[in-house]
Amino acid sequence: MSLYQGQYSFAGKSMLWLDTDVDAISSLTMQLTYNGLNITKVETCRTAWAELRTNHYDFFMTNMSF
Fold first, then answer.
1. pLDDT tens digits along 15-63
2. Alpha carbon distance 59, 20 (integer Å)
3. Which is the most buried residue in 13, 35, 45, 52, by most CB within 10 A?
């Protein structure tokens, strides 16, 4: 089983997520802090990062490995 990991910077903080094979699981949970509010997004793995980018959350990916 593959392990996917990525690191992103959000609101000046660096965060890390780890997950199992993207084809083996149906959802990815990400918890973000935005303007002092905790936002938890549960999306399919294939669309989660794209949605964050298109929703203008000041999202900057710094490192992602597949």
1. 444 444 443 333 444 444 444 455 455 444 444 555 554 443 333 343 3
2. 22
3. 52
- Contacts with 37 (C-beta within 8 Å, 6 or more apart), sequence order: none
Q: Is the whole-model pTM more than 0.90?
A: no
b vs e for 31-63, b when ≥16 Cβ sit within 10 Å of the residue's Cβ? ebeeeeeeeeeebebeebbeebeeeebebeeee
Which bin fits 47, alpha (ψ -120 to 50), beta or left (φ > 0)? alpha
d(CA 57, CA 61): 12
Closest CA relative to residue 56, chosen from 36, 26, 42, 35:
35
Alpha-carbon gap, residue 5 to 37, rounded angstroms: 24
